[in-house]
Protein 1
Amino acid sequence: MRGRTLTLAAAAALAVGVAAPSAAAPPTESFIVVLNPDGGDVGSQAAALARQANGRVGFVYEAALKGFALTASPSAAR
């Protein structure tokens, strides 16, 4: 029984270490990126630009303006 308790404790300690956020992760912020209205497919442009910035595309805007919401580090978004 004691060996099983130690195994469970070790597994729990490893799980906590894996779940902890990385201290090296860069801070992220949200941006609205406005594209040229004549620039073509907004979705593909958004995906390409987000890939360049190591970011994530949020909502894609195609009616009132052409653009998208981007979550990325401030330096990458520039």
Protein 2
Amino acid sequence: MKLTSIRDAAAVLAGLLGVVVGTAAAAGGRRGDAALMRVTDAVTAVPHLLATVVVVALFRGSLAAIVLALALTHWPGVA
């Protein structure tokens, strides 16, 4: 699979993160599900633009930082 844009790479990474968290919540039982739901709620509560600016600033604006920032702020919708 060839990723042709930042959008595609971020979407694939966010999808993978969401699937991993969702699968772990399903396999973790009641307590694992509750803990991972709180993590998902916390990520959702942080404004996307603020989180993206912080991650990009920490990694000096590299392309990988942009993809990572977008993926880290958009995976809860998948989980």
Protein 3
Amino acid sequence: MDIHKNARSCPASRELLVRRILREGWGVSQAAEAAGLSKRTAYKWLGRYKAEGLSGLADRSSRTVLLLAATFTGVLGIG
């Protein structure tokens, strides 16, 4: 997956952020500032890491999930 042109981080920098917080004892605010991220974003990546491990730090699609059944029902007037 391509990195978004305005992305402030990539999987490697997210891993560095998490390592600084969990292994090196940095505070979330300090690690976020060093990475150029908001504290909220740092907590998001930390939470994903704790829930999913390294795979949680991978890029994800921002595309919405389309519910085809709901779309067809609405378009066709069924239901």
